[in-house]
């Protein structure tokens, strides 16, 4: 008996149109597949369509004896421009048969091999352009790859040059093509009457089609007028005869296929290249392996056609890219008209399909089927696509080029082109994201491409722009290297300053602030410091100046803008860094015991092993202890400057030059976040309890997330604290500041900006003062008695009086009004405003446009001053926003395993939390509720929650209780102030121990375990889990030592135990 096929309810006439994002329908299809499973049904344009995503079902529809390609609604509209071309022809059209047989030889191995030189010609144009623009130029990756692949197909297939790299604007073909594709996609889902009424849109659509056909016609006419013997695609169409019928292609068919190849021959390939470079930059280990393979196979000489078959790892990267991001993400079939089955069945009789019914294969979901690709199917792992494992995949597990007879005829052309271009680029450049935290966003037409993807290209160390063309074309590599020009030398007191390179790795901004602070201080020691990210210096660590590295660790991993540098460093051999003089300061958090300072220590150790000379012992700061800025100052004073043998100038030189203007007004906002709109802001706890809140946000267009991700918030300082600064500085509320250009600072420079903006949005006003801050404030005092009292605070009692009381520079300046510190020096003391990360407490399956966060508001008596209160910057900022307000946010992906399991139907879930650690699990459970509502059968889920009292702070009580009744999750509470209502369990780990028999059984069945809460929760749960394992082994007569238990625990952390702890 066939099962009903699930899907969202359809509206009369409109069907499921509102279930799809009109700008990015693929994201909607993928979300619906996550909700409903391997098959679902939609009514679009009055037609019932089936969407399938599992390998088992897609393998069935690839049987060409039962199913054949169906020209989808999108393609049917594109036929307005391409007619019966190979891509858009209906089944059985005579012109398709002729064209397919005529053109197959033009894409044979020898023909593709003969196109190599022309492909290389076009590729070198882009390489030279990037080299001349330099490493600071922001490259629009999809745009440049589009120009590249369009020029390549035009030259190789049709003998014409579009010369896209010699013009500012894209070739007219590109604009017309985009117009055709975008409007065709819109028309596919738009009622015909609406299209009829859109006169101006129709006029542009017709004009775009006319442009495409004119260009194709002109190319054909030019070749007819000036024939040649070139064995290219155009001559094949003009001169070739069908080996079966002897017929030639008609002029109409030639133009249709010219447009088809100009579109399909460059659009999907440029998308593939864009996605490939995204994944390589995002995954430094794969990047380094691919680049190393190119270096070993190609070396520094010219790339040749013989190299194309000798780069297996690069080809694996290409396959893996197309697995995760097929540029043509669907294909559509239906039952063959001559198939006697009607109805037919899929899934062993589970699902019934009828003749004429559209069946759409969702390739992004096929390529992530956990039964084929495992629980790490979301990860970019080229090793799974090396020749041997690739050949062992189940049939029809990887389908980026379509299926069977109607598959992509140009696959060999695209494959050679991508190998050539990628090898050439990796041979000559190092790449990094323009925005190190960039997360993949999709732009959709008939294909998909990365959206807003920009990168920088730096020539590798052995290459100079003047010799690049010689390297690209000569038979032997140049044996000389032209030194790059030094930047203009700064001058101080008539003498040139010495250069210094300061490299930082930072996600939250702390290490960048330290680096900028060091650069200002360095000026007083006679150095002109250049501050860059670590990734910007891959393969280019200078040997003629001191190199200072300031870097953090994130769960043992490098920051986003240091990942490539770390990977490159780990792959270095011998004494490649001999001659480099360096020092390292590292930042970490003691809550991550096993990985505390891992990356800074790795940098310090590896630099020395590779021959570099250490200037000073490594310095280490702990953000968890809240004193990292003082640690950094102490390291500089006691280690770094002594190691450099320098004596500094006065502290006054390290300030920021400022001009005050009270007349003009200008606002500048940070660019690394986007505006979200507040829908609601709700208090969750009872009166008198520590405040916990829940905020609902409408995300900016194009911003997406997964359950388990974070939302980074860029807060504003509390208005009370801003007014305190203005009062101290004797400034009016509308004062404008102009910070001098050339200053080492993250503040906006060179133009007026409101003092309210600077103080509210750009600096941390509550950061505890450092010893150096205290000394400088004291030096600004003319009253010797007051100066002495302030200096005492920098002595033995510093930790007690400053750090533990969190006394900020502002606190001290208010307390000692005789201190005459200039405003510029005050601002120089303040680190830049940091983003704060909060676990997202919702699921995109509920509503992809909505995200929620749940947090505790920090509002405690100030230890710095009597009646004042210490207000957490972000938590209080968020507590004050109201519906309709706009806040600045960015999605940050959760590292590692902190997402619901890939195989949700077979993997049980155990979630353990306390307080607002419930936030991500609310998202997990909401996602499960949506999936169960859609008819999916899920493995069981267990949620352990620690809170104070059932009547005071039981967050989301009604919602969770409802979900438990629906079978979504099993709830287990512990109440620290009412343990009699939680089986005597005061803490969440106590309740875990109470339920250990059930949990041990579930964990043995393959469950994944998640923990979220303060560091004490993480430690307590870890200890309990180890204790449970110890007891279980004892019961089985296989007792374990403490070392064996710890080894087991570390083992499950790699794939089954995910922890997210916070201070």
TrEMBL record:
Question: Keyword annotations for this protein?
Answer: Electron transport, FAD, Flavoprotein, FMN, Heme, Iron, Metal-binding, Monooxygenase, NADP, Oxidoreductase, Transport
EC number of the protein:
1.14.14.1, 1.6.2.4
Name the PROSITE patterns on file.
CYTOCHROME_P450 (PS00086), FAD_FR (PS51384), FLAVODOXIN_LIKE (PS50902)
In this chain, the stretch annotated as Disordered covers 475-499
**Matching InterPro entries, A to Z?**
Bifunctional_P450_P450_red, CysJ-like_FAD-binding, Cyt_P450, Cyt_P450_CS, Cyt_P450_E_grp-I, Cyt_P450_sf, FAD-bd_FR_type, Flavodoxin/NO_synth
Occurrences of domain Flavodoxin-like (ranges): 500-640
Name the catalysed reactions: an organic molecule + reduced [NADPH--hemoprotein reductase] + O2 = an alcohol + oxidized [NADPH--hemoprotein reductase] + H2O + H(+); 2 oxidized [cytochrome P450] + NADPH = 2 reduced [cytochrome P450] + NADP(+) + H(+)
Q: What class of enzyme is it?
A: oxidoreductase
Location of the FAD-binding FR-type domain = 671-901
Please give the GO cellular component terms listed in this UniProt entry.
cytosol
Cofactor(s), by name: heme; FAD; FMN
Q: Which GO terms describe its molecular function?
A: aromatase activity; flavin adenine dinucleotide binding; FMN binding; heme binding; iron ion binding; NADPH-hemoprotein reductase activity
Carries keyword Cell membrane? no
Which Pfam families does the UniProt record give? FAD_binding_1, Flavodoxin_1, NAD_binding_1, p450
Decide whether keyword Cytoplasm is in the record. no
Signal sequence residues: none
Q: List ligand-binding residues for heme.
A: 408
Q: What family, per the record?
A: In the N-terminal section; belongs to the cytochrome P450 family.
Q: What's the protein here called?
A: Bifunctional cytochrome P450/NADPH--P450 reductase
Output the lineage of the source organism.
Answer: Eukaryota, Fungi, Dikarya, Ascomycota, Pezizomycotina
């Amino acid at each position: 008996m066939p099962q009903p096929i699930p899907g969202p309810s359809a509206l009369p006439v409109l069907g499921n149109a509102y279930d799809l994002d009109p700008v990015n329908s693929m994201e909607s299809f993928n979300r619906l597949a996550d909700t409903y499973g391997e098959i679902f049904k939609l009514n679009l344009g009055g037609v019932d369509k089936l969407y399938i995503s599992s390998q088992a079902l897609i393998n069935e529809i690839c049987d060409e004896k039962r199913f054949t390609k169906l020209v989808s609604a999108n393609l049917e509209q594109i036929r307005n421009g391409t007619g019966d071309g190979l891509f858009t022809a209906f089944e059985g059209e005579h012109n398709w048969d002729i064209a397919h047989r005529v053109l197959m030889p033009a894409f044979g191995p020898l023909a593709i091999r003969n196109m190599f030189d022309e492909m290389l010609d076009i590729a070198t144009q882009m390489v030279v352009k990037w080299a001349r623009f330099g490493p600071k130029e922001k490259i629009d990756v999809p745009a440049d790859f589009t120009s590249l692949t369009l020029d390549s197909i035009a030259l190789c297939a049709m003998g014409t040059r579009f010369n896209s790299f010699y013009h500012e604007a894209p070739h007219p073909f590109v604009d017309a093509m985009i117009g055709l594709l975008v409007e065709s996609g819109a028309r596919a889902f738009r009622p015909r009457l609406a299209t009829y009424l859109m006169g101006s849109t129709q006029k542009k659509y017709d004009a775009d089609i006319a442009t495409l056909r004119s260009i194709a016609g002109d190319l054909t006419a030019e070749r007819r007028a000036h024939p040649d013997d070139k064995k290219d695609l155009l001559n094949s169409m003009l001169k070739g005869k069908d080996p079966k019928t002897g017929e030639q292609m008609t002029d109409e068919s030639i133009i249709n296929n010219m447009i088809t190849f100009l579109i399909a021959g460059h659009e999907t390939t440029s998308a593939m290249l864009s996605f490939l470079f995204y994944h390589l930059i995002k995954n430094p280990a794969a990047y380094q392996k691919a680049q190393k393979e190119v270096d070993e196979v190609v070396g520094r000489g010219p790339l040749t056609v013989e190299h194309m078959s000798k780069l297996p790892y690069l080809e694996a990267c290409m396959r893996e890219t197309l697995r995760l991001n097929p540029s043509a993400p669907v294909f559509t079939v239906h039952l063959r008209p001559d198939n006697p089955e009607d109805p037919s069945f899929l899934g062993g009789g589970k699902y019934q399909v009828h003749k004429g019914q559209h069946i759409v294969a969702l390739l992004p979901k096929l390529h992530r089927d956990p039964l084929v690709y495992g629980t790490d199917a979301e990860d970019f792992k080229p090793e799974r696509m090396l020749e041997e494992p690739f050949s062992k995949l189940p049939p029809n597990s990887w389908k980026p080029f379509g299926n069977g007879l109607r598959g992509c005829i140009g696959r060999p052309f695209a494959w050679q082109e991508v190998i050539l271009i990628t090898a050439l680029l990796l041979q000559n450049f190092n790449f990094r994201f323009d925005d190190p935290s960039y997360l993949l966003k999709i732009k959709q037409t008939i294909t998909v491409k990365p959206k807003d993807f920009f990168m920088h290209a730096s020539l590798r160390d052995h290459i100079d722009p003047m010799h690049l063309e010689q390297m690209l074309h000569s038979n032997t590599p140049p044996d000389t290297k032209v030194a790059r020009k030094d930047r203009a030398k700064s001058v101080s007191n008539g003498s040139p300053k010495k250069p210094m390179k300061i490299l930082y790795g930072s996600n939250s901004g702390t290490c960048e602030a330290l680096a900028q602070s060091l650069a200002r201080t360095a000026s007083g020691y006679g150095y002109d410091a250049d501050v860059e990210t670590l990734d910007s210096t891959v393969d280019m660590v200078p040997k003629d100046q001191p190199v200072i590295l300031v870097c953090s660790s994130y769960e043992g991993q490098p920051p986003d803008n240091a990942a490539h540098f770390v990977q490159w460093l780990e792959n270095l051999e011998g004494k490649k860094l001999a001659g480099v003089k360096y020092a390292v300061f590292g930042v970490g958090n003691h809550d991550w015991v096993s990985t505390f300072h891992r990356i800074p220590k790795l940098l310090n150790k590896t630099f020395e092993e590779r021959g570099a000379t250490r200037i000073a012992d490594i310095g280490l700061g702990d953000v968890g202890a809240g004193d990292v800025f003082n640690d950094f100052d102490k390291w500089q004073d006691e280690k770094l400057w002594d190691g450099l043998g320098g004596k500094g100038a006065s502290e006054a030189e390290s300030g920021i030059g400022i001009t005050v203007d009270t007349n003009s007004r200008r606002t500048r906002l940070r660019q690394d976040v986007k505006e979200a709109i507040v829908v609601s802001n709700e208090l969750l706890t009872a009166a008198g309890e520590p405040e916990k809140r829940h905020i609902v946000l409408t995300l900016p267009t194009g911003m997406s997330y997964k359950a388990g991700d974070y939302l980074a918030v860029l807060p504003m300082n509390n208005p009370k604290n801003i007014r305190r600064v203005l009062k101290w500085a004797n400034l009016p509320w509308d004062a404008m500041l102009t910070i001098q250009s050339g200053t080492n600072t993250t503040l906006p420079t060179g133009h007026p900006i409101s003092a309210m903006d600077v103080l509210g949005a750009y600096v941390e006003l509550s950061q505890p003062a450092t010893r150096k801050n205290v000394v400088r404030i004291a030096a600004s005092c003319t009253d010797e008695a007051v100066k002495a009292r302030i200096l005492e605070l920098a002595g033995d009692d510093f930790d007690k009086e400053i750090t533990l009381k969190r006394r900020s520079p502002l606190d001290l300046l208010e307390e000692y009004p005789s201190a005459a510190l200039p405003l510029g020096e005050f601002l120089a003391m303040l680190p830049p405003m940091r983003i704060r990360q909060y676990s997202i407490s919702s699921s995109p399956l509920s509503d992809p446009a909505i995200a929620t966060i749940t947090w505790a508001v920090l509002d405690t008596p100030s230890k710095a001053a009597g009646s004042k209160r210490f207000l957490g910057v972000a938590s209080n900022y968020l507590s004050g926003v109201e519906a309709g307000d706009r806040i600045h946010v960015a999605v940050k992906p959760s590292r590692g395993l902190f997402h619901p399991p890939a195989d949700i139907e077979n993997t049980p879930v155990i979630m353990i939390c306390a307080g607002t650690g419930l936030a991500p699990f609310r998202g997990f459970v909401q996602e499960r509720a949506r999936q169960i509502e859609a008819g999916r059968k899920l493995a069981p889920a267990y949620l352990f929650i620690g809170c104070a009292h059932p009547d005071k702070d039981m967050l989301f009580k009604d919602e969770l209780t409802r979900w438990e009744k629906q079978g979504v999750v099993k709830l287990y509470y512990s109440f620290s102030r009412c343990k009699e209502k939680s089986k005597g369990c005061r803490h969440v780990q106590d309740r875990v121990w109470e339920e250990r028999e059930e949990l041990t059984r579930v964990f043995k069945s393959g469950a994944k375990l998640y923990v979220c809460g303060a560091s004490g929760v993480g430690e307590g749960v870890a200890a309990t889990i180890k204790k449970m394992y110890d007891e279980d082994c004892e019961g089985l007569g296989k007792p374990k030592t403490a070392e064996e238990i710890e080894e087991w625990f570390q083992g499950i952390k790699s794939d089954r135990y995910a922890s997210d702890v916070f201070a």
